[in-house]
Design goal:
By secondary structure, the protein is an alpha+beta fold. It has helices spanning 11-37, 60-116, 132-136, 158-167, and strands at 122-127, 143-147, 150-151, 173-179, 182-188, 201-205.
């Protein structure tokens, strides 16, 4: 993975290089305009007449100065473009490295979180609106890791939950679930309501 060396440029410095490039291009354009104003002589038109004397129809000194400036400016422009290209490559490599590092950290954090979460023993596959389960905040697909005194270690069958519910009618139960990879604590009070049972939800055991 590319590392930013001590000579790596910042975004601001790259922007300054780009501004300098624009300035050079403007100067080159101005010099070519000078040549255009001198009878349209380019970079290679002869500046002497057929007899070898300096041409009288153009300002020979101005044309030579403009040509010299164009050559120097074009050389500077070429060198600057190499600098810009190298700097942009460094910035891209640094951004790519930062992105890869952020992704690796996020994956590591997710792995640690998953490793620290207890194994669920049951899953909620139905919740009736208005029921005690619904009022507590229980949702479909919540994975249960604690239901009152029942947890991953002592759970055997759904009868364990049923027993806890029967003995906790009218009393708040602590229920812990995994939802979206995160652990949530809910307070559920089993009680009679308009529907069937004391909870108003359906729970399925998970294969272990």
């Amino acid at each position: 993975m590319a590392e930013a060396g001590p000579d790596a440029l910042s975004v601001r410095e790259v922007q300054q290089l780009v501004r300098r490039k624009d300035e050079l291009e403007a100067q080159i354009k101005a010099c070519f305009a000078v040549l255009e104003g001198q009878k349209g002589v380019g970079m290679n038109e002869p500046l002497v007449d057929a007899e070898g004397y300096p041409r009288a129809d153009v300002d020979v000194y101005q044309v030579r100065a403009a040509r010299h400036n164009i050559i120097c400016l074009q050389n500077d422009h070429k060198a600057l473009m190499l600098q810009v290209e190298k700097a942009l490559h460094q910035l891209h490599a640094r951004e790519k490295e930062k992105q890869a590092k952020d992704e690796a950290e996020a994956q590591a954090e997710a792995m640690i979180q998953n490793q620290s979460l207890p194994q669920p023993f049951a899953r909620v596959n139905a919740v009736t609106p208005g029921s005690p389960a619904s009022i507590s905040g229980l949702q479909v697909d919540d994975e249960i890791i604690e239901f009152g005194s029942v947890d991953t270690h002592n759970f055997q069958t759904l009868q364990n939950i049923a027993t806890v519910v029967q003995h906790s009618e009218g009393k708040p139960l602590s229920v812990t679930v995994i939802r979206g990879g995160k652990k949530l604590h809910l307070g559920l009070t089993p009680k009679h309501w308009a529907g069937k049972g004391l909870l108003g939800c359906n729970i399925l055991p998970l294969q272990r």
